[in-house]
Amino acid sequence: MVLLRALVLLLALVVSELLHVQPPTTFFNPPSLTRWQGIYVGEVTLSSSAQLDALVVNHYELQLRFICGNHVMEGPLSVDVQQDPGHIRCAGRFASPGGEIIQVLETVSPGARLYTLLLPGLELQGAQMSITSAQDPPHFPGPFSINRQGWLQAPSQGLKGQAQKSFQLQVSVTFGQNRSCHGMLMVKVLPAPSSQVSFLEQAQNITILENLVPGSKVAQVQARGFDVRYEIVSPVPCPLFSIGRADGVVRTAAPLELTPATKGAAVTRLQVKAFERLRPWASVELDLTVKVRSVNRWPPRCLPELLVTQIPETMPVGTMLNTFTCTDPDSPGSTLDYQLRFHSPPGPASLCLRERVLEVNATLDCDTPGACFQHAASILVLDDGQPLMTTEVPVLVMVTPVNEFSPACVSRTFRVREDAGPHTLLGSVVGSDMDYPHDSIEYHTSGGSATFAVDHLSGEVRLLGSLDYELQRLYRLTVLLTDHSQDQDATCHHSGSCTITIEVEDVNDHAPECEPPFQELTIHTSLGQSVEVTKVLCRVPQEPQRLAFSYSIVGGNSQSRFSLQGAILVHNDLMLAPPWPEQPHTYELLIRVADAGPSIPHLSTTATVIVHLVPWRASTVATSTHRATMPSMMTPLLVTDTEAFWQPEPWFVVMLTMTGALLLLALGWLLNRLLQGLARVLQAPSIPAQALLLNRSASFAHLYARESIS
């Protein structure tokens, strides 16, 4: 019994099964498992009925299944059947005493093969064959011969005219070391038949696929004749194909996979012989061409199988990202087609594929909204087989932002009134950055100004302290800008700056002051003449440049005897008819002095001028003016009279009203109880007056106590 063992080293296998065999046969037993040194060894044996014949089928495919718990694994096991020269023996009728009888026609060609003595392939083992019996004429037309392939060949003179004769040949076969056998061949020459064997078709061209399993039908040849048999006479041996002797069906005998080592199997030319079993000399040959077409069973295999990479947006155009290496298992070394397909964003943009190299195709810009993203694509690899097989390699390229530019802002000028309060908004510094996002900017002031502040996020400039136009009219503020969140590296920042000019607008916040603020004058009037009384001198000490004022008499100018010509007070005495004033008269004039010009608001002050007017007399020769002024160092006294009054809060008024209402209700209730008690006394006179008085007193006290608690 021939034993075939297949060692399958698998870990922790507990169950094994034989699923199927190609070509179908019962030659193999189910696999068995044994444990050896911690490893399970599977053993497949041949059944007792197995009869292997390398000339018929020399290759079997066994599909095995191994089960370990929930883990199931399947795999093929290939079995090649080879000829064993050590087991070849001379057997059959060749080694029998009567020998092998060979019948040939007398018309056989000279040197034609009449019989195959040895199994194909034995010649490689160095077998030596020879005819040991005598072949002397006239009994033999010529010597028969045996070549190294074991073919018994007709004499070179042919067998014409040797019909009905028999030639007995003693043959010796020696092979290996001291191994030999002897046999006998009986060649009977038959006369040429009157009818011939013929094929229905003279030649056939068959095309088959390479994935046919051994034993698959390729073609069937048919010949006319009685009890026809078939055999392949060329090539011999024929390792890929076999033919049924009775039915003429040509089948595959081995796998037909087209690899670089078996390219010759693409086209096989078979020479098939058909002959009658009882008359072997009645034969005919047919040429059968079998073309094996490759089958594309495996898609291309690529390295890498997945590409995920990250590149900065400053990556130059033409930079190589990766090179893809793909092979076709069905046809190693064949040319493959590579195609780049975009998924998001769609359309060819920033990447390109040159042969097998993925490169940067365009500038990668992350400085516009939505431009910096992930490029999802795939490399489609196609082979040239039939059917077409493809492999898709996913590609994900992530573009990261780079902080390339510094933020900048435009110098601006803000104007603010000097009376603006703290936290007043002066304006905003608008920074810009060419990197995205464009507003990722923080603002700071250089030098730490105590008067102004800049909001870190919005860039708003606000006032912190007070301003004085008279002390400082112009401020220059340096604003520093720093970007952030614009680079893959969180520590990468760029900065810029600009100058903000702040102009303080003047606000009229000082009233004019007159010197002196109080004057007392005595003038003598002349009838029908105007007399200059005095000149009011005023100024703003905090703003010496302000000289424009307006003057007006706001009080004490009875009978309109006085007027102002600018800052000069003039007395007008234009009365031409009596009665003329004969007694001195005193006027207390109030002169309002207000600043003039564009500044607002207009502030004012009041100067007091007391004029003692002495009327004209005939004996008066000249008019004189007596001026009495307050000393310049005297300061007018301002007396403020404050009248105190009480104005309660609204909540207090509400509480007081509610309390009064409750008090009135309590008094009404008390009065009602007293009246009810008095009525009861009047209705019950038997109660002593003293007891009634005590009860009333107790009741009154009790009610008073309750009211007090309330």
Looking at this protein, list some descriptive labels.
disordered N terminus; 8% helix; five-stranded mixed sheet; four-stranded mixed sheet; disordered C terminus; 710 residues; mainly beta
Structure overview:
With about 700 residues, the chain is mostly beta strands. Helices cover about 10% and strands about 40% of the residues. A five-stranded mixed beta sheet has the order 45-48-49-42-50, with no helix packed on it. A four-stranded mixed beta sheet has the order 7-13-12-9, with no helix packed on it. A hairpin with a 5-residue loop joins strand 19 and strand 20. Helix 1 (about 650-685) packs antiparallel against helix 2 (about 690-710). The relative contact order is 0.05. Mean pLDDT is about 80; it is low at about 1-15, about 620-645 and about 685-710.
| Total beta-strand segments | 50
Helix content: under 10%
Looking across the biggest beta sheet, what order are the strands in?
Answer: 45-48-49-42-50
Q: Which structural class best describes the helix and strand composition?
A: mainly beta
In terms of per-residue confidence, which ranges show pLDDT below 50 for 5 or more consecutive residues?
A: 1-13, 618-644, 686-710
Number of helices: 2
The major sheet is characterized as: 5 strands, mixed
**How large, in whole angstroms, is the Cα Rg?**
67 Å
Estimate the mean pLDDT confidence: 79
Transmembrane segments: 651-671
Domain Cadherin: 303-409, 408-518
Keywords: Calcium, Membrane, Repeat, Signal, Transmembrane, Transmembrane helix
Signal peptide: 1-18
